[in-house]
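agent> step 3/5: call structure_predict on target 'Rab-GAP TBC domain-containing protein' (Timema bartmani).
agent> reason: downstream docking stage needs a structural representation; sequence fetched in step 2, passing through unchanged.
tool.input:
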Amino acid sequence: KQQTVPAIVVLRREQKWLRMLAHWDRVMNANYKKVRERCRKGIPPSVRPRAWLFLCGGKLLLEQSKTLYKELILQEGDARWVDDIRKDLHRQFPFHEMFVDQAGHGQRDLFQVLKAYSILNESVGYCQAQAPVAAFLLMHMPAEEAFWCLVSICDKYLTGYYSQGMKKQKIEPILYMTEWFLCVFTRTLPWDTILRVWDMFLCEGVKIVFKVALVLLKFSLGRAGVLKKCPTMYETLEVLRNPPQAIMEEEFLINQMHRLNLTEEDFEYEHRRQMAKRRAAQLENKKIIRR
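tool.output (status=ok):
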């Protein structure tokens, strides 16, 4: 069940976060575990946008390149990516007030952020799964800050996951689901749950994505009789695309994530293993093309 945090607790958490953000570098260097603990409890809504910007390193990137975003949005960009981006704009949270109007500032900012990234990182360009991530960020912060958070997520948290070669590969769908991994659950989980997951994701990295996926897999496919109804991969994927609502509720999912008996090394190993498989698939694809 959804639990409401008492107002006095929220106020205390806000004050703690404001103190941390005022001395961010010192706090992160001296007491990362405390930051992680507070992220796991949930970041107060009033400080969440600023906290996310600091957590992912977007603040540092912005300070290092203060005029770059403004310069990028003035460029035309690669026609290929620009066309693809325009086609995807109306699909991102279409019922949200920010994105409902084709001529509104939401779709305009989303276009600029995605185009700017495609220019900045030409080797990646634009990947469709970046759009919901960028849109989700724009719901919380101005376009320039959202851009630098997107840069950090693509280049630091999910390095290689958005590579162009992956579009042509037959990667195991259960381990590599676009809706989960590339969109960081923005198209899957209820709103309050997404916020809590992202609080942890931007603090702890890609292992949080794996943890959420493991919980969803366990409680979607581990229910009595479910596997008997899934004789092939297609039925299995259909179940995973629509997990039971109860297992996606904030408190249940977060509690189950914390109960997972897996080490940091386990998640790092799985991350490296998946990236190695992707690189091998890309090389194999290049060999086939040469033939």
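agent> step 4/5: record observation. The chain has two domains: 45-158, 178-290.
agent> proceeding.
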